[in-house]
Design a protein that fits this description.
Layout (H helix, E strand, L loop, with lengths): L3 H4 L8 E3 L2 E2 L1 H4 L5 H6 L4 H10 L3 H17 L4 E2 L2 E2 L8 H10 L2 H12 L4 H12 L4 H14 L6 H15 L1 H11 L5 H11 L3 H6 L15 E7 L19 E4 L8 E5 L6 H17 L12 E6 L6 H13 L1 H7 L8 H4 L23 H8 L4 H5 L13 E4 L7 E4 L8 H24 L7 H12 L7 H12 L3 H18 L9 H5 L18 H6 L12
Antiparallel strand pairs: 1-2, 3-4, 5-7, 5-8, 6-7, 8-10, 9-10
Length: 553
Amino acid sequence: MNTLNFWKYFESEERYINENDKGDYWKFLDTTIEELNSKDIYIGSIIKIIKKIQNKDLKEKMKQKLLNLILDNKLILTNGNLILDTELFSNEEINKIIFSSDYFSLLEESSINLGHIDYSKFNDFIYIFLTISDQNMQIEMFNKLFETIKSYNDFQKVLVDALEIISQKNHVLYEELFNSWINDLPKYYLKYLKVNSDPNYLYNKSLEYKDLKIGIDPRISIGPEVETNFINSLDINMYNQKHFEQDFVVSSDATVSPGREIICEPFHDTKEDLAKFKAVLDTLSEMGYYYDDKLGNASGQINLGLSYLDSAQAILNFYEIFCNCEKVLFYISNEKGQLSRQSLYQNSRIKAISEIIGKRIINEDITRNEVIDMFLTENEKKFEKYGIKGLSHKKNSVCMRGVCEEDYRFEIRIPNGGVNYNTWIDNIRLYSKIMEVAKKIADALKKDYITEEEERLIKLKLELEEPDLSDKDKLEILMDLLFDDEKIKQIYFDRYDSVIAKINTLSPNDFDYIKYKRQNFGMEPAFGDVDFSYQYQSKLFDPYKDDDNEKSR
């Protein structure tokens, strides 16, 4: 037999003159599995050829020969693919192939080699299984399959995946199998079904929360993008959740597959907005969404509306504080005991903006629009021709995004994700307070006189520029700059201490801030070369007087 004749159909190979003069398709009736393997003739290719055979007698004989080869050799997989074909084989023949083959032991062996259930082979089987018209046969096959894999750790994941696929194709069969296996289903799947069956679930849950508050200026708009790990691809159907359908979108994300990304419409520090945000995160947590400490792949952006910073100096103040403290922020933007994605996730491409910002933005006459124009992600290509690279790159640790004034925003990229509400609130508070201080200092510099509090903020900001500060000293200055409440400061001190303790247990290959810092765009000036203090020094020593809030000096 010629291998080519089984890669492509040739009508001439159907000829039969006599035993000494017959085509390859007749010769196939006398072949062995060893001959097929030696000639690289695959079962899948033979199936395609049989479907094209014109001679009905030959077609039936080839099918029977193929069926016998499969049964005699206990085949069900060839070249990594299922060979079941519902067009060629009847339900009875498929059932015979399944239960007389070593399919289930092959699946088990493949799973042992991988360390988990072989999802690709399993999913192929489920889709073939759905094409069978005999429901009793389907149930028998399903039960045998899941009894075979029941001892595996990821058995429940595969069971849920299978039921979800079946629910979309055959709801009657789904109900039958669901009721049969309900005692083996994980609690998170039952929770998922409960949430999606109740259009008021999230709204009623949000009413449970009282007096939630971040403690930031309510004028700052907040838009978290939550990334979280999950064992299955299950979504809350937000379109069916009353009062939530316009505010949250749950979608897939390649970074955390099969986890999810939850995108929130901008909201503010109000108890109503925070109650809705908390209801979504708490429900996802109850459904089984989580942060994978080992993978470290669930980042999560915090978008903060740029309209709050209404001057060029306010925006530059934000960048200066951020860049002078980026290493410390890198450590404290994570839940206590967690490391950042940028240090763990091998595909992370976040760039440390403090290493690329350079001297070029120092211009006393620069306008707010010019600052936005320079940093805006959408303008990255625009500046390349001038040799300015990096500032507007979408993978920077903090990006400026948007297409118009109403949409302009900072996208903070170094905090961790997950579905812990308190972690998100602590991170939102941290970066929002940097915005607040940036604006307060910019506003103070417009005045003829400054208050003691404004002078304190400016001095602390200048202290952050000292080149020989330790990370811990810099953290203490940053906390004094941003917060008055000692309990809030302690949140970030605890984060810092826990991260440093964890880093000390790892090898440099497991965690390397320097490597992250060097993921930049070439020989850009380092942030240490930037001098932002040109307006501050004279202000600190000008005499000022105010009868109410200020004193003479």
